[in-house]
Request: fold
Amino acid sequence: MCSRTTCGVCQKPTWSGCGMHIESALRGVDEADRCAEYKTGKHKSSMFPAMCIISVVATLLYVSMA
Reply:
C-alpha cells in the first residue's frame, strides 16, 4: 500500500510504497503541487528503501501464512 510522504529532494508531496496506489496516496494534492518526479519515482524520501523492504517482507509473510 502506498502512502503520502515528502520528497527528500524538492520537499513536495510524493508517495512511498508499492507504486500501485499512487493516486490514492496523493488524493487531494493538485498535480502542480506534487513532486515533479512522482510518476517516475526518481525523487523519493529517505524512507523509500526501508519502506520497500518492509512492504515486500510483509507481503511475503502474509502470503506464507495464507
